[in-house]
Structure formats: structure tokens, C-alpha cells
Model the fold of this input.
Amino acid sequence: MKDLLFEKIIRQLVPEDILISFVIEDINDAKSDELIISLVEKESAKPAHEDELILNGYLKEIELTHFPSNGRKCFLRLKRRRWKIKDENSSKNYFYNDYNFSVPGTKATKSFGSFLKEFS
Done:
């Protein structure tokens, strides 16, 4: 029951298109004026490739601004996985997924960016 309630709340805070490929890793509310929701890419979101890929760490986090929550600025931190070809020693060839979660030229989620655009 608690898991279902948590999932319903998260679906109100995080855009559905992000939740397709990412899961909540942490929610940081230590600062009174901001909420940081950290998400990590699902292991099942492995990039399509003809060779077998294995996890090779993570890329630099992407931080997006989203709708405020209870008067707090809300940030979504996305941690994407980096993959390499199994049994390949080269560290130069790695693979990752590209996502289009933000409005071009901004660090705002698409829904928040569209909302802000109405007022400009």
C-alpha cells in the first residue's frame, strides 16, 4: 500500500516521460527553499547495440528545473549509465542513451518550459 502511495506522489512530481527510463534514487529536502529529486537510469534502458554491452560507470549528472513544489524550487538530477562492449579493453568506445527532456536552450523540463513560455 505504501509503495503504491509513494508511486502516485512521485508521478505528480516527476514527468512521466522521465519515469519511463529512470527511477528515484533519492529525495533531498535539506534546504528549506529547494527540493532535489535524484533519479538513476534503469539498467533495462541499455542502448541498442549488436554487441553485448556491460555497465561502465555513469555520465555527468544532468540537472533540470521543474515546477516548484510547496514553495520550493524543484530540481531533477538525472544520472545516465555509460556502457561499453563486453571484453573490449578500449575505454574510448562507450555508449549511452540521449534523452530530450528539456526545452532547447534551457535547463527546464519540457512541461515547465512550456508553462514559463506562456508568461514571456
About this structure: Residues 2-117 form one domain.
